[in-house]
Amino acid sequence: MKILVCITHVPDTTSKIAFTDNNTHFDKTGVQYIIGPYDDYALARAVELKEQLGGSITVLNVGESETEPTIRKALAIGADDAIRVNAAPTDSFFVAQEIAEVAKEGAYDLILMGRESIDFNGGQVHGMVAEMLGMPSVSPVMTLDIEGTTAKLSREIEGGKEYMEIDLPFVAGCQEPIAEWKIPNMRGIMSARSKPLVIKDPVSDETRTRVATFELPAQKGEVKMIDTENIEELVSLLKNEAKVI
Amino acid sequence: MAALIFVETDEGNVKASSLEAVSYGSTAKGAATAIVFGFLNDGQSDLIGKAGADKLLHVADPAYEQPNIMSYATAIAEAYKSEGAELLVLAKSSLGDPVAARVSIKISAPLVSNVSELPEGNTVKRSIYTGKAFAITSLEGEKAVVTLKKNASPIKDNGSTPSIEDFSPTVNDADNRVKVTSREKATGEVLLPEADIVVSGGRGLKGPENWGMIEDLASTLGAATGCSKPVSDMDWRPHHEHVGQTGIKVAPSLYVAVGISGAIQHLAGVNSSKYILVINKDPEAPFFKAADYGIVGDAFEVLPKLTSALKAQIG
After folding, report:
1. Under DSSP, is residue A108 helix (H, G, I), strand (E, B) or coil?
2. Are strands A110-114 and A2-6 parallel, antiparallel or unpaired?
3. In this complex, do B309 and A228 lie within 8 Å of one another by their Cβ atoms?
4. Contact in structure between A144 and A202 (CB atoms under 8 Å)
């Protein structure tokens, strides 16, 4: 069982979002970077599958050298080796091409990643990679079990779940509760230092979208507090001001 | 050049989010063709026409009755080419998103998801950082695929009856490799991502047995019900009702939060709502800072009062 887990290097969920240089760059001041929370679920499930079935886990990140501490953390959690494609992940098509190239060379049985990154929230890369490789893709995957060369999985749909079976290989975008996040232990952290991390140059520079500028949402006005003894005032606001009833 | 719109149905009825997509495509490009799979209830094709589609491609082959991401993508790519479309529009959903990703590769077009407003020239505005910011994104070339957040476009109602054509896509066996064995789906409820009003409960409700109050308020408002992460983690409510950073992101006209303190991860899932009403007994709850309307009070006292006042108003 050869598993490829693709991870993003993203600002912590509690980060303050701000931009610099006339709103053209994300302001990294004081921002903590983490493994994308959804990618972290994918990695945790990969570690469990490896414990159960044997095999190896390669972790892949498309990013510049600043992402290496995040990659080392993934190695500490349980990946065996890592690949970093040395380029800024500027566009989902660009990232998908690089992942597809690595996936072709490595002939993996399973390609896992998060359902979406938490910075750009595109949720596109798993579908694009699968289409490039001519494989099925499923997202957002909530449970994943492997029996022989067949996987049984479930994914969330609006108002419920869908259960399915697929032959390996395929691509999955993961979310909770596929596995519990794993916290690296001291042995994992020590061994991660010496695990191989290969740096590759990107195979293409083609992108299809470009961010011109960033914007922050309009500031909310002051909250209107309504007394519990005056519920009619609220009903009137909902009707006449918000016009939602 | 026209827009092609993938229209999703639920038990033969067109989803409201897909009607928004039709209006978006029609406003952006002037002409719009919709593609729909499986059976349609009476009057549904007229709704698609009113929303702005001049033409409706209907894939009636029973093989397409159940959603299949790969075969739908193949069919939509084929329709995109045969219609000579420039823009493909899909509503964001568990079906629309993966179909969009595959089609964008098949037709070599840029793809932008979570689009929140009508385009200006070749730039679109999309929501990023889980609703905490927007990216004004320019697309390379003339082709484009966009998936829409809720409320990206108003639904038009001045279109006329569309011409309907049967569409028979090329069948590709390789598209049938995902075998869907079963589906579990709540019926008769307003679906959370589609809902115009959402009523969510948090730990302040004290237990799943108290959810009747949330449901009463929701049904009075025609709203969907949601919950906070702790509530879904404790299995008080199913995961598909969990609203937040790692759950469902909603963008209703009104979001009502009851007994939810407003952790930043929860706010990330609701910050695209037009109006937010917070009911919490703790006046220091951080959610009040993100709210338009607030009531400091015990949910058990406020909810029945509010529901009966709304019933009196709405009838």
Report:
1. coil
2. parallel
3. no
4. no
